[in-house]
Amino acid sequence: MEFPLLAGLASILHPVNLWYCFLGAVLGTLVGVLPGLGPASTLAMLLPLTTFIPPTGAVIMLAGIYYGAAYGGSTTSILLNIPGEPSSVATCIDGFQMTRDGRGGQALWIAAVGSFIAGTLGSIMMSVVGPVLAAYALRFGPPEYFGLMVFSLTTLISLSAGSTIRAIGAGLLGIFLATIGLDPLSGTGRLNYGSVELLRGFNVVPIAVGLFGIGEIIFASEQGIVRIYEGTLGRMIPRGADLRRGLLASMRGTLIGYGLGLLPGMVTALTPFMAYDLEKRVSRSPEKFGTGVIEGVASPEAANNATAMAGFIPLMALGIPTSPALAILLAALLMYGLQPGPVLFQQNQAFIWTVIASMYVGNVMLLILNLPLVGLWVRLCKIPYKILSPIMLAICVVGAYSPRNVMFDVWVALGFGILGYLMRKWQWPVAPLILGFILGDMLEQALRQSLGLSAGSLLIFMRRPISAGLIAATVLWLVLGRRVASRVLPRREAEADE
Amino acid sequence: MTRRKVLVEAIVFAVLGVMSVIEGIRLTLNVRPHGTYDIFGPDRYQLLVGMALLVTGTIHFILERGDSSVPSLPPRPAENPSQGFRRRAFGSVFAMIVYASLIDVLGYLASTTLFFFVIFWFTELTRSWLLGILLSIGCAAIFDLVFVHLLGVVFPRGSLIEIGI
């Protein structure tokens, strides 16, 4: 009898892999702590530089950055009332109140423990559900993949903050950009106007570096320097009823975050608010929420981490990223010649199980690292952005240049940096653009292959049960998803603002 | 949201849509027919994307022109930046453009030094010329050491250096 997870654990305990896991966890926490530097931008900046390390180590490190950022975002939310990540906004509501009351230590402790519970349960689910889903996905043909991608794009668009038509526009812009260069099936050149560079098409790395790295840095440069709260943290471990309520809330938050996080497009910014909302509903004293209750920190933090971990399942088992950061992780896997999806579990067992095992180890590392290093993270927040931003911009240039060693990619990154800045400024969502770009080629292939199979009949998407189900789910989500987002997000954001 | 801004956004979509439609027509005229395995072909897909862009741009213009009640993203502090912070943002863009232009000419090390100097000046990290130069050289040297010498990224040597100036 084979135990691939045990083999994966043995592999991750190799000092080299352990080092990359540690590096990813630390870097992830750092980017989670620093406002204005998200996991997507960090992954985009560092992705090209990982070409110098072995693929398994690189993916372990990048995954560590991704889930480490979900951990780190809570620190600034609790201590400074500044969410390091959009997904940590909900934690600010009660977390900062606890700090004001001299209970910041307890808030940090329950956030770290809640994140650990969510991360570990998420890793267990990945070990169990991932291979099953991958095996099921072997039945998928082009029509099923087309349905899945339409569903993913639709859910992401419907859950994007702001106007739906802008989210659709951003997604279409990504799909349009993906058509530039050689057509994936017949090799016909499109929209290249005689340019050799355009014939090769845009590489995802400079676009991601531009949109999430340069664009975010320019945007964040306009922000003022954060004001640091200088209060005391107080006791770290909560006692008695607080401990029990906090742990139970973490479990509930994990279940919500994980259940919803499996849906493609379920952005991590939304599930913490849903968990907070549920916690308030089940509480015997809902009026105390917003004044510094421990459940108000535990539940959204656990939900945030559970959603982040759940995103690995559709990515690894189906090859579908559910967020921009995971889209960049997908680009990393493709860069190493690894095609995520059912075949990955069959052909690269050693790799996939080492990455899954690294999630268990990474979560333990984060728990050990986070609490003792809280003082260091807070001090890092004090580094002025005017020192960090030039360094990050210079890293972006190297990041954009190094995958193909052409200056054209640096100009692409710069162009998309300005576009990313303008999109943020003019309130256009950036996430649908990068997902549209990454899924664009796959979407086109799936559509054209499906129509080839059916001699041009669109009914093929309705005749096959899985694709018909996914198309029906897409229609349902178009009606339902927007309502969910509009009901939960504005109300909770208003509370966070207060 | 001003009407002019929405108009600019709609025009961008219209231009991209028209580009895509023209490309689709060009492919239909020049590349068709495709094999039986690919009935739809790259041309119709391109036409479809172009039409979708045109429709989206039109709907966006109709829905949002002069409408101040458009649902907006959560407010972020930078939406009303002060002049100083705005200067930083434009300084960053300017420094990046100069930097990307100079890598081919001066090579990586010299252009990176210049980039750091310009950006430190714009962000008012230091107003001392000497300190600015020293900091810029230090940062550029670290970048050169890590990326060029340790990680082996091959940057252009610089056309001026290649011709011996």
Short description:
The complex is a heterodimer of chains A (498) and B (165). With 498 residues, chain A is mainly alpha-helical.
The best one-word shape of chain A is globular
Straight-line N-to-C gap of chain B = 52 Å
Residue stretches of chain B low in confidence (pLDDT < 50, at least 5 long) are: 69-79
Quickly count the helices of chain B.
6
Q: What portion of the residues of chain A fall into strands of 2 or more residues?
A: under 5%
Q: Whole-number average pLDDT of chain A?
A: 82
Biggest sheet architecture of chain A: 2 strands, antiparallel
The oligomeric status of these chains comes to heterodimer
Number of strands of chain B: 0
User: What is the helix fraction of residues of chain A, given as a range?
Assistant: over 70%
End-to-end C-alpha gap of chain A: 57 Å
Helical fraction of chain B: over 70%
Protein architecture, described:
The complex is a heterodimer of chains A (498) and B (165). Chain A has 498 residues and is mainly α. Chain A is 73% helix and 1% strand. Chain A has a two-stranded antiparallel sheet with strand order 1-2. Chain B is an all-alpha fold and 165 residues long. Chain B has six helices and no strands. In chain B, helix 3 packs antiparallel against helix 4. The longest helix of chain B has 28 residues. Chain B is flat, with a radius of gyration of 24 Å. Chain B starts with a helix and ends with a helix. About 7% of the residues of chain B have low confidence.
List descriptors.
heterodimer; A: 498 residues; mainly alpha; 2 strands; B: 165 residues
List the helices and strands and how they pair.
The complex is a heterodimer of chains A (498) and B (165).
Chain A: H1 4-12, H2 15-33, H3 39-46, H4 55-80, H5 89-100, H6 104-137, H7 142-159, H8 164-179, E1 181-182, E2 189-190, H9 196-199, H10 204-221, H11 240-261, H12 271-282, H13 295-310, H14 312-318, H15 324-335, H16 342-347, H17 349-370, H18 374-381, H19 385-401, H20 407-425, H21 431-453, H22 460-463, H23 465-497
Antiparallel strand pairs in A: 1-2
Chain B: H1 3-30, H2 41-64, H3 83-106, H4 108-122, H5 129-150, H6 159-162
Helix pairs in contact in B: 1-2, 3-4, 4-5
